[in-house]
Amino acid sequence: MTPNQSQALDFVRERITKAGFAPTLKEIAEQVGVSEPGARRIVEALAAQGYLQRKPGMTRGIELPGSDLRVVDSAALCAELKRRGEWPVAERRGASDGGDCGAFGCRDAAVHDGFCGHHWGLIPPGVLRSLQERARWLHEEPTIASRRAYMQVYQMVRDMLHSTWRR
User: Fold this and answer.
1) Which residues of 142-161 are buried (b: 16+ CB within 10 A; e: fewer)?
2) Range of the domain at 80
3) Burial level of 122, CB count in 10 A (0-12/13-18/19+)?
């Protein structure tokens, strides 16, 4: 993979993840610093390598194969985050020792098990209890099993907040 292809793929992944839709070829060209035909060749090469899927005739007709993160293997997701130098909020800072809120796009300080006060209040009571129980288990017994259990509920809450209660 060339540096331009890597930069374009990272940009497409980030745009789809954060905005919920793919960038246009013009936006990719501007981000990578190439012409639109150059961006088209990069996207076609990434599609040929299996990194992207194209929907012909659509302005934003680029998709990531297997882009539903609920079906992505956790090890593969962690490997991709490590490649980018990023860590999940709870794993990077601990469950409740400050840092940013775990809700997508929120940069408020996390005060309760990885979430700010605003988002904490939006979590349904049953899910909240489950998150608190797993956070307590993780703090009392920091094992792979307790971390996996906590991260499973944490990611479910994060996805729920992202899809239902955008701030």
Assistant:
1) eeeebbebbbebbbebbeeb
2) 69-164
3) middle
**What's the pLDDT tens digit per position in 28-44?**
999 999 999 999 999 99
Shared domain for 21 and 92, answered yes or no, is no
Of 63, 80, 110, which marks where a domain is finished? Answer: 63
Please report which residue ranges of the chain form alpha helices under DSSP H.
Answer: 3-19, 25-32, 36-48, 74-84, 89-93, 117-120, 125-140, 144-164
DSSP helix/strand/coil, 104: coil
Q: What type of residue sits at position 94?
A: G
Going by C-beta distance under 8 Å and a sequence separation of 6 or more, which residues neighbour residue 10? 84
